[in-house]
Amino acid sequence: MQRTFTISAHWDAEAKRWYSDSDITGLHIETATLEEFEEVMRDMAVELIFANHFDAATLGSTPIGELVPAILWQRPEPVANA
Fold first, then answer.
1. Would you tell me how many other CB atoms lie within 10 Å of the CB of residue 48?
2. Mind listing the pLDDT tens digit for each residue in 10-60?
3. What residues are paired with 72 via a beta bridge?
4. Confidence at residue 38, expressed as pLDDT on a 0 to 100 scale
5. Of 22, 19, 2, 1, which Cα lies nearest the Cα of 11?
6. Which of 76, 80, 81 is nearest to 29 (CA)?
7. For the residues 1-11, what does the mean pLDDT come to?
8. Which sign, positive or negative, has the C-alpha torsion 57, 62, 65, 69?
9. Does 25 reside within a domain?
10. Are the C-beta atoms of residues 7 and 72 closer than 8 Å to each other?
11. SS3 sequence, 30-73?
12. What is the CATH number for 36?
């Protein structure tokens, strides 16, 4: 029962910020650079998946190999003047 989640980054030219679109409950990222975006994503994504997408019964009864989430991420092309 491996779960797959997606994260994408979008550029807001008016705010001059990268922001996230994701199916990970609670993950909201807004940063000035893609490097910062990726750092926040790496720090928070897995923690939020375990906190918000698995209940205690599932965590206690599922083999560890089936709990490891897959996170799909494709780095967008840099934006000029970003």
1. 17
2. 999 999 999 999 999 999 999 999 999 999 999 999 999 999 998 899 889
3. 6
4. 96
5. 19
6. 76
7. 88
8. negative
9. yes
10. yes
11. EECCHHHHHHHHHHHHHHHHHHHHCCHHHHHHCCHHHHCCEEEE
12. 3.30.2390.10
**What distances in angstroms separate CA 20 from CA 14, 24, 27, 60, one per listed residue?**
16, 10, 8, 31
| CA dist 25 → 5, 20, 22, 79 (Å) | 10, 12, 8, 27
On whether the CB atoms of residues 2 and 68 are closer than 8 A, the answer is yes
pLDDT at position 45 is: 95
For 69, the domain range is 4-73
Total domain count, the chain: 1
pLDDT band at 78 (very low <50, low <70, confident <90, very high): confident
Is 30 domain-assigned?
yes
